[in-house]
Specification:
Elements (H helix, E strand, L loop, with lengths): L10 H10 L10 H8 L2 E6 L4 E3 L7 E7 L1 E7 L5 E8 L3 E2 L13 E4 L3 E7 H10 L1 H45 L1
Helix pairs in contact: 1-2, 3-4
Length: about 180
Amino acid sequence: MGLFSNVLLSKQDEEVAEILKDINIFAGLTPLERARIAKYFRQKNYDPRTKIVKECEAVDRMFVIKMGAVKIAKGLTEKEEEVLANLVDGDCFGEMALLDGSPRSASVYAISKVTMLELYRVSLMEMLDKESKLGVKILYNLAKILAERIRQSGDKIRDILIWKSLKKSGEELKKSE
């Protein structure tokens, strides 16, 4: 008998629930709560070199990598881009799309054959309607994640401003010599 033997769940829902335990958006959820939301995810496969997400495209879902690897890249010019991150099994991206569906800030490409678990914004809204207590926990986790990202961005901006100030002071010092 499995962990969910007293609940009617598919084998796939149990697998998804197990994967979700390590995703920060679902932190603090019980195994049963994760199993209840597993049914809202859709599984999709991508071949190597497939562009999963296009920069500036409005996408209405978040992704959890069930198996495989992707790279996230930001376009610099028409033919040049900078790789920002490589993600593997258990990593996720696109959480902000659950809230606003705004255009993506980077492109995502499959490095290998990839199996994704995708949670669409409309599915999250349905879950919020049907499972409000569970939805509140998830939204709270999203708020914490976004607050941390804002703090990190503020720190980066501060560091850039300090660097510019030091560089300017150094240039002024050289001129006065």
